[in-house]
Design a protein that fits this description.
The protein has 6 helices and 4 strands. By secondary structure, the chain is of the alpha+beta class.
Length: 183
């Protein structure tokens, strides 16, 4: 079995990319959005974390979380979110993708890719870069021409709090992120 190296910092801030199985465009559907929101709320109740920023795209999501002091267990949180979402999504009429022999043997549904991608934020500048990347992502993927036009993003909350101008993002605020392979 592969050994994945992860950098765990208790109380740390992390950037995540989580992708659907075979990049099926299901996450922004009317069925998926409330299921995902509910899964986040339920997991936060048992295992608190602060969701600093989030963008929901059809086939993946990006988010930045800060964990409580002394806690670095984001893998369990993601496992529970994926499980809760999957059960709810399928129960509410969502469908899964094709399952291969490995998924059948492991009793895995074909909703999510097995693993996500994470980046441990090193400092405030790194957090800001991640936040900007998350908000810019719908433009990067050609879903909208202006950041403010994308509905499933925390960008609008940041504008309401005065942290962004509504016209923010006229050009890529973090071109270096594309070189890092953040997706």
């Amino acid at each position: 079995m592969s050994q994945y190296r992860r950098y765990f910092i208790p109380g740390g801030t992390y950037f995540f990319t989580v992708v659907t199985h075979r990049r099926r465009p299901i996450l922004t559907s009317d069925i998926a959005r409330p299921c995902l929101s509910q899964a986040f709320r339920e997991v936060k109740t048992d295992r608190p974390f602060e969701s600093v920023v989030l963008v929901l795209l059809p086939d993946h999501l990006h988010t930045v979380w800060t964990l409580p002091p002394g806690d670095s267990d984001y893998p369990t949180r993601w496992k529970k979110i994926k499980e809760k979402f999957t059960r709810s999504f399928l129960a509410n009429g969502g469908t899964e993708g094709p399952r291969n022999a490995s998924r059948i043997r492991r009793r895995e549904r074909a909703i999510w890719q097995r693993r996500g991608w994470e980046h441990t934020c090193r400092d405030d500048d790194d957090v800001e870069r991640c936040i900007n990347y998350v908000h810019w992502n719908p433009v990067k993927h050609g879903l909208v021409k202006r950041v403010r036009d994308y509905p499933w993003s925390t960008f609008h909350r940041f504008v309401q709090r005065g942290e962004y101008d509504p016209d923010w993002g006229g050009e890529n605020p973090c071109p270096e992120a594309d070189l890092l392979g953040w997706e």
